[in-house]
Amino acid sequence: MKKNIYTYIAAATLFLTSCTDLDQSSISTIDKDNFYQNESDIKVALNGVYQVLTDGSMNGPWNDELIFLNDLQSEYARRGTANSAAITEIGDFAITPTNAFVETAWLYRYKAINRANILIEKVSNSQQLSAQVRNNYIGSAKFLRALYYFDLVRLFGDVPLVLHDGEGEGAPRTSKDEVYQQIAEDLTAAEAISVDFPKLSSEASSQAASGLLSKVYITWAQTDSEYSKAHQAELYQKAIEAANKVISSGRYKLVDKFIDNWSLDKKEGPELIFTVEHKFGVNRNVTGHCVFSTGFDNNKLPVIAAINNNLYYEFDAHDQRRDASVTLRLFDPSKGKYFDFDRLRFRKYIDTLYMANESAPYISGQNTSSSVLRYAEVLLVKAEAENELNGPTTSAYEALNAIRRRAYWNPYSSLQEKPSNGTPLELSGLSKEQFRQAVQDERYREFVTEGNRWFDLKRWHILVKTIKEKVPADDLKYKNISTRNYYLPVPETQIVLNPNLQQNWGYAGETTGDPYSALGWK
Question: CB of 134 within 8 A of CB of 124?
Fold first, then answer.
């Protein structure tokens, strides 16, 4: 079972790993004890932890994977022309423990976690670096470990918590509360990263740690675990405090033009707190493999298609997020005119510069960045947590209305628009329940195809209800959805390798004892 093999190639910039199960002790082609001797070695190792974010072509966590596992499991998307059984299963809510994306979602993250564990241990013992430089590298590795575990606990629920190289073999599933506690500890440590250490939004920073921590706390508060129910108010307060650290830093702001967050020439925009960088030919972009578009052709559907065109009309006509998120027409540079689609296309990751290349095999983003965390989300987390804790306070309204003002700002005329249906631009006078719904509505419009929707529906405990309300009754998504879809199945290969792992409810033929309905999840 000890099957990780580490190879160091002098000309390479990545510390590469081969992994066959939950990361175990390593057989090394180098002496790990002698590798972490200087900052150059440590940079190579840290790059290896980052690299898993875009590992494995389209299966990489922030290539196509989170779009498939998240947005495809939402009410607005369906499988299109996918010839992959794995994608079909996800899109139809018929996912199985042998699904390829389920397998890689587990394997890749544990591969990265093991790399982070080794780096943290080696750098902690290094005497070659100053205390601050050492803390910067450890903080970066802990930020990434926290991000990978945050994905795992939301995807699978209880997962093995492995914090040291060689401890993974036979590890049982750890309770969600213990996993969240470790995530919070790692992100708190990452807040000590010095301001001058990260150079790009694709690198861990103190503010990225605080921003992600706010999201972790609000998610943890809503898990319905024993700890979260007993400490919900405390977790909401911590979410607010973490969000306030980002807001008070003055480092970030909402960009006037929403689509600029995905523009190739604005990758370091002031709204982007943490991103994943993509470069075609090096690591496949999130929109690779025709995920969103298939050229100027109404006879084909992208791999991920819209359920129908309703999403387009659920945006107000004056909301600039509509045409940045979904579109029914695109300019065809080869013809010099607009092309009208019968079925809407998801817009954010369509690389219009690539479209200008007449030899391009399909419209797709090749060099855009994935937005893991934007300032807009920090504001919405603060608004939501403040409302859940104290009701719709002044600070909750300030955060929510900032999102609405930007949504209805016209960046072309530099005028503040208002909703075309006559409703007020800035909300006020709402009850706690009305404010909660307003936050949920803004998140729906704000984060289309950003890998958030399934996670949101799960933490609000309205996954099945929403699918049943929004998806046509003749669609397989409607027919197959059940409470078991609140989590993915544990990969079958992992259960075979590790008999201490238990399968999630609903994936081993159970018809009774539904733990999610018992919690009131709908």
Answer: yes
